[in-house]
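Methods: example folding runs. The two proteins below were folded one after another, and each record is reproduced exactly as written to the output file, sequence line first and structure-token line second.
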Amino acid sequence: MIQSSELIDTLQGLKPIKDLIGTKPWVWGWKDGKPFPAQASRVIRTRGNVQLIRVSFWYKGGPHGIQTKHVDVTPDHCFLTEFGWVEAQKLEPSCRLTRVRLSRDRGRWLIIPGKGKERGLASRYITECLSGPLQEGEIVHHADGDVTNDNPTNLSRMDSSLHVSTHLRKTGWLSHPRPTQRLVWDHSTVTEEKVRELYKAGMSMRDLAKVFSVSANRIICFMHQHEIPVRSRGKAISLGQSKRWNAKVAWVKPLVKAHDVFHMRVPETECFSANSVIVQACL
């Protein structure tokens, strides 16, 4: 059982477990060695004034350096580690916890462990997990237009050409065409020092292009001019998995104050992601 304010990785983003009472949220679980979307059957408050322990962990978070998080649970609550399920009170420092790795920016990406080049949009991954592979020319459409809302009820398969025209109608571009503006690249936004810093952090050339809001070809030319090795997305993902895939336990300490505790039941996976690490669901 976990503390009321702990953040749960739902398919609509991070939400405190206390806000999910009375609902059946879709959450990230773990199945067959991979992240798996599953629907919780219930979320309830079990009891109050319970002594908890805090499991603090860290991982290397790309250009932002080392990130530290924690999960407050009852001592007997289990975490998924490299050696299987282990109770929180038995976790040792440097023990590796299994982590669901998602980007939090627009159009969320998901990293799948075990395959260096397997990186894709979470919405596509969810759709294929629940209803099979997409056919050639198919794309996943968000009904409400919010690309961070990956709830299966908000996702639908759609032909790519129909998908484009649907969004053009919503924005009014089909009825009110606008003149195309030429994009001018501002060289002052890209500096050798910043590029080298982000490169050392493990970014690919495409990631760098997004950071500086320029095309990948511009970044490649810039890197060649300054003799910076070009790194593909596949190599960056492999590097990122070896460095940042699992989280390491920093310490386990009891909390001074007692708290209310909640539990969630997820029949499909019997586990869920709390603050990005996999914990066991209550049966």
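Second run, written to the same file directly after the first:
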Amino acid sequence: MAAPRDLGKVGRTYGGRSLPRDQILMKNLLKVREQQQYQMGTSQSKSLSTNKKKSDNEEKDSESNQEVIHDLKMVDLRALLLNGNSQFHDGVYDQCYISYMSALGELMNPPKHNIDDITQNDIMNLVDEVQRQTEFILQDIGQKDNCGGLNSALKDMNTGLAVETSLQSNNNKCISDSIVKMKDHLRLCDLVSDLMNNLGATSFVQGNLEDSMEQHMKSLSLRRVCEGERSLAAAESLQNLANCYERLGRLQEAESMLLLALQVEGELDGGKECTENTSTLNNLAVLYSHMDRLKESESLLNTVVKSRKSLLGTTHRLTICAQRNLNVVKEKMKMKICTDRVLSESSEDEKEASISSPQNMVYDKTEEKE
């Protein structure tokens, strides 16, 4: 399985980064929190020792404190997300659900501290509001139709600020303030999309497939406006949606999601071989196998095995997984040939008995998704 892009991802196929890495990230977050608490304490001390300062300076101190408090809250919520990831990897899904829901509750207006008070509508309203704010920001800066999303727009703004600064323009202060606000909102959007992705993963393993699908759809919507239609984050959500569709028996829709994810990854990688692409191909091959499209499945898995041997080596777990899947598909193809031969040589009564026979319908091995 491909490693997640950044903090907090459980992973597009419900595995994600290893627990030790989550623990390292948690320690880093706690260090940031300590630094910010120290910064806030220092600022308050200065304010107490300079009672004769002008009101405008006091307002600046107050604004600075509010910014630090806000940053502390974001660090705490990100820590909740990472804690939920650790619980997910440990298989403690009830506790994992509580961690994700607690973080979402704190982001609501007004905050809901008791997760029993949080409804599915509350969650969807929160996501919709964050998405509306994102779209409003894009519209406000004249990039409503920018399919690169808020992240791309922010890079453009940073480039614009550098140009304005080099020209000694009076507008660079305004651009700088806009960039700060956009960065702050992007952090919020990224956090909410991660929470929705991981909450969807938790709902999936708990068997709540309809909830999982809705949560992944919301995560996909946020990721598209924040990171772009053609982003790795969007491809990640498409993979998760494909898993939901497949489990619900909606195989054609699952195929559409995987093909779109494959297209996005191909555009990002410029057609080069990469682990992300091979994981999508592997999962598409498994889907085709379940749809009894064995020749297509075999062809895809041959490509995956060849690519992984080149990229990762023959002993890597992903290479071994793909080879195992290929062997299972080949075994299925042999069984199908044998069954077809028996049917062609049998009488009508024997054909009917053979078709209904369990041993001709059940395989001892199944392919592995990633």
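Comment on the second run: The domain at 19-272 is CATH 1.25.40.10 (Serine Threonine Protein Phosphatase 5, Tetratricopeptide repeat).
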